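Milestone M4 deliverable, item 7.
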Amino acid sequence: MPKPHRITTPTDLDQAVAALLAADKRLHAVIERTGHPPHRHRRKEGFEALMEIIVSQQLSTAAADTIFGRIKQKVTPFDPATLLATNAETLRACGLSAPKQKHMKTIASAILDGSLDLKRVKRLADEEARTHLTAIKGIGPWTADIYLMSSLGRADIWPVGDVALQAAVARAFKLRKRPNEKAMEKLAKAWRPYRTIAARVFWIHEDGLRREKREAEARAKAAKKKFK
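Output delivered:
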């Protein structure tokens, strides 16, 4: 079994960025604008981390953090058995939608019956780990990819179905339209084995563009108000 490639130290990150720059000239302007992505400690792994990712889907970071914080206050200890024993009304009062409740409890059941083995996932190669995760109803490709990237520190995860990443790549490379999953795979072929770092670069680049737009709009509004 091939050993999963991980980014665990600042040196690993520096090597990854250097390799990306050497592999694709198109990335030079993007990384020049963003700088090196910061080295960050991985989020916790295991059941809690996976549940946090489920909660965060289609929510802002602030909203997800608030809801997950409420859930952890009610589900104590925070483990699969306790979550399964928590009634729907309690979880709904925390802000958790019915579909997310269903997904989380399905995953909790899978952990308890052994069909989902998160310790095994840690040892598996990327594709095998993704296959094991997505075999459980409630864990889609996006959830699996984010878990592998943020919790396990895998270096070569490229979430082709992430709409925000597709949009970020389109803007950074000035593409006429947002690339689909097949196009995303093709675009990132040269970035192996560091596609996780490429994804982070594009997300940071997009955040920077949006921040600049908001600041420009605020300045324009302030100037207009001043001269009224």
